[in-house]
Amino acid sequence: MAVKSPCIELCKFDGKTGLCIGCLRTLDETRGWKKMSDHRRHQIVNERPMRETKLARTQATEKKARP
Predict the structure, then answer these.
(1) Exposed e or buried b for every residue in 53-65, given b needs 16+ CB within 10 A?
(2) Mind listing the pLDDT tens digit for each residue in 26-64?
(3) Which residues contact 20 (CB under 8 A, 6 or more apart)?
(4) I need a labelling partner for 49 at 20 to 30 A (CA). Which of 23, 34, 58, 59 fits?
(5) Confidence (pTM)
């Protein structure tokens, strides 16, 4: 069964992690989504919690660093 794109049309990429803040994919993953195997798409979708944590930690660190 085809894996639906996780895109929520909020395409803004975090400079440190390289992840889209909307769907949590990298730019390469976003561009190549249609050509990926369903297996790879499932991997990306299943990595979402880990990616969400990574992005949150990066953003929290950046907020602390701002004066």
Answers:
(1) ebbeeeeeeeeee
(2) 999 999 999 999 999 999 999 999 999 999 999 888 777
(3) 10, 11, 12, 13, 14, 26, 27, 30
(4) 34
(5) 0.86
